[in-house]
Amino acid sequence: MTGKELRKKKVPMPEQPLKERTKNFREVPLGYTSEMAVDEAKRCLQCKPKPGEKYPPCVIGCPVGVNIPAFILAIREKKFEDAVKILKEKNALPAVCGRVCPYENQCEGRCTLGAKFEPVGIGWLERFVADLEREKLGFRAPKLPKPTGKKVAVVGSGPAGLTAAAELAKLGHKVTVFEALHAPGGVLVYGIPEFRLPKEIVRAEVDYIKTLGVELKTDVVVGKTITADELFAEYDAVFVGTGAGLPNFMNIPGENLNGIYSSNEFLTRINLMKAYEFPSYDTPITVGKRVATIGAGNVSMDCARSAFRLGAEESWIIYRRTEKEVPARKEELERAKEEGIKFVFLAAPVRYIGDEKGWVKQAECIRFELGEPDESGRRRPVPVKGSEFTLDVDTVVVAIGQSPNPLLLKLVPGLKTTKWGTIVADEEGRTSVEKVWAGGDIVHGDATVILAMGAGKIAAQSIHKYLSKPYKWQSA
Amino acid sequence: MYEIVSKEVLAPKIKQLEIMAPQVAKKARPGQFVVLRIDEKGERIPLTIQDWSPEKGTVSVVVLEIGKTTKQLNSLKEGDRLLNFIGPLGKPTEIEKYGTVVCVGGGVGVASIYSIARAMKEAGNKVISIIGAKTAELLIFEREMKDFSYALHVTTDDGSKGQRGFVSNALNKLIEEGRDIDRVIAVGPVLMMKAVAEVTKPHGIKTIVSLNPIMVDGTGMCGCCRVEVGGETKFACVDGPEFDAHLVNFDILRARNDRYINEEKAALHRCKIPDEERERR
Questions:
Q1: CA count, 13 A, side-chain hemisphere, B103
Q2: Is the pLDDT of residue B272 over 70?
């Protein structure tokens, strides 16, 4: 590759060969070597803030405000420890973000280079730095301030909760995180597959957060194992980051047939319970030869790709709009296509037909055409009368989004929620109940890891203000 | 880690484990369940809470060996520890003074009806209990149930104890005798609960059943435990586990409970603990 080409395109990242990767759950992209990272870092133009703006464009695009030009400069100068420090200052989960962030819409989407060429591979560089720290340099706990004596409870150990916890701990508060499942990480451990985000990495990042003095209590269902009242009595502030854990179904006939999973169940069995290692691990999963995933978000791509890895011969994604409207990240869509996932656009199931033992054998679908734009600005899909067709399937994964899990919400008197079941919170994350903050999917509906982290960070700063000085509470 | 503080054999393949779990013990109510996991490779399984002691900090469950995990669980000894023990989950039984309440338990379901019957009696109800098993040696908690019950009826499928037949037959007899019954609560195998529902429905007797679908998380996150009640999909783990028996689609529940039968066989086949070793323990 000549120097000139190098400037136009990102230094490519090595990855598992296509043929092999659909047969295992190992990570697909393999990461940069130091040489590759330095070469890529050289592409950065080190932009200054535009007139009237506080930060360079890429930093404005980062929900947690990482000083991107500075850490890239450190890589270019091979000062890797400095790069780690700069990154960690703002981002407690860089190895996670370097893998699952939709950079193309965020930092890289605003990269000056991107106007003409490929943007700088900021996500890949972030991943490189985080991996180098974990694998070679080792974690270093930052200096912590004197304890403030204030106690904060964080409910949920997903991206929002972990970020809020790390921020608060760095500010000297005593933080306890409560997690209902047996492993911390929330969607990072139950939702995102190993081939996109190895669980080892989540564990390592959680361990780092523990070194900040954060206490993690797993197996605790707030509202059941301990009540909301007990939390309020014991803690000076509470952050709710319980995510969007309630799977949506379409409520069409036959949806409770065997072989039909919610994406949450399908992915939880695979990722949290390691069903792909059954029977060495005890949790089973049944995946047939012909698998249909309904919906085309990132979660759908994860399900369809997992199905291949579990022995499916055909894996379809059925989506009622067209490829243009697909909500998944472009990179995820491309990977799914490469791996041989077939897309049925402009269609959706209307009912499932089962066999005599109660297992799904066919999905009856209907075709759609795009009509007028709806309130989201996307053209509304309209069913075409008489266009029904059937698809022979033996496994279906319903991946049409998640709603907030209502378990906890019912138990906090006065906590205002929207008609979608999300918590009402202001721009600082304050809810309608004093000393309760919320952030992440429980506020925004199901979105991305980094947005949840951004919300956790903002709420942590607001909590810090509340705990630090005379403060007048304002409800959302 | 959750220590097994005592273990008792109740019947062949049925054991009672008392587990140290103070947080769960403090909050447990009749009708609730726990989700547990034995070790790092283990699956999460739901088990009804049979009894609990906030003072001792313990929770008891009754385990019938049916698959790999339940076999492994029953092979554990006092002093062994479980990796995870989460609860109490699900909504508690609605306990009120209804009048005459018939508590029906079949098989290991008797372990679940036990604390419900006790609470119903404490709430001032006249409790009539019907408990049944395949055969006399599989009948559990007979003596204890007698303590809570104004009258106790026993059935066995083979007639080796009490009335020959099913608990639903005994219930039918009570109704035909003209007993005034304000509420029936039944816990047991799916077919038994279905039969109970069919017996009470024509008489319009309010009947509650506790459903036992397969679960993963037990907190409403995965939808594995979805059941059809009154034509709507419900999650047994958070909306239940108790539902109006006359609205439950038992056929779907039964089909769904059978969906890992082949995998269960495969897991058992490879079960790491040989039978002889289990015997010695």
A1: 32
A2: no
Nearest beta carbon to residue A268 from set B84, B217, B267? B217
Q: What is the DSSP string of A288-335?
A: -SEEEEE--SHHHHHHHHHHHHTT-SEEEEEESS-GGG--S-HHHHHH
Q: Is the dihedral of CA A187, A191, A196, A200 positive or negative?
A: positive
CA A409 to chain centre: 22
Q: What ipTM was predicted for this assembly?
A: 0.89
Coil vs helix vs strand at B93: coil
Percent of chain A with pLDDT over 90: 75
Shortest distance, CA B84 to any CA of chain A (angstroms): 7
Identify which of B29, B10, B188 has the alpha carbon closest to the alpha carbon of residue B108. Answer: B188
| Residue A332, pLDDT above cutoff 80 | yes
DSSP state of B222: S
Nearest-CB residue to A247 (from B41, B222, B262): B222
Q: Is the pLDDT at B278 greater than 60, yes or no? A: no
Most confidently modeled range among A213-222, A420-429, B63-72: A213-222
Residues of B in contact with A359 (CB under 8 A): 259
Cα angle: A305, vertex A310, A312; to 5 degrees: 75
pLDDT on residue A143: 84
CB of A184 closer than 8 Å to CB of A161: no
Question: Smallest Cα–Cα separation from A308: which of A18, A29, A26, A23?
Answer: A23
Facing A246 at nearest CB: one of B89, B220, B233:
B220
**Torsion-angle region of residue B272: left (phi > 0), alpha (psi -120 to 50) or beta?**
alpha
Neighboring chain A residues of B238 at a CB cutoff of 8 Å:
407
Contact B263 A181 (CB under 8 A): no
Distance, CA of A192 to CA of A303 (rounded, Å)? 9
CA distance A374 to A395: 32
Q: What is the pLDDT of residues A388-418, one digit of tens each?
A: 999 999 999 999 988 888 777 777 888 899 9
pLDDT of residue A98: 92
**Minimal Cα distance from B2: which residue of A?**
A219
Beta strands in chain B (DSSP E): 2-11, 14-20, 33-37, 45-53, 58-64, 81-82, 84-89, 100-106, 126-133, 151-156, 163-164, 183-187, 207-210, 226-229, 232-235, 242-244
Count of other CB atoms within 10 angstroms of residue A342: 13
Nearest to B38 by CA among B4, B89, B88, B87: B4
**Model's pTM, two decimal places?**
0.91
What CA–CA distance (Å, rounded) separates A318 from A294?
Answer: 5
Taking an 8 Å cut-off on Cβ atoms, the answer to whether B223 and A269 are in contact is no
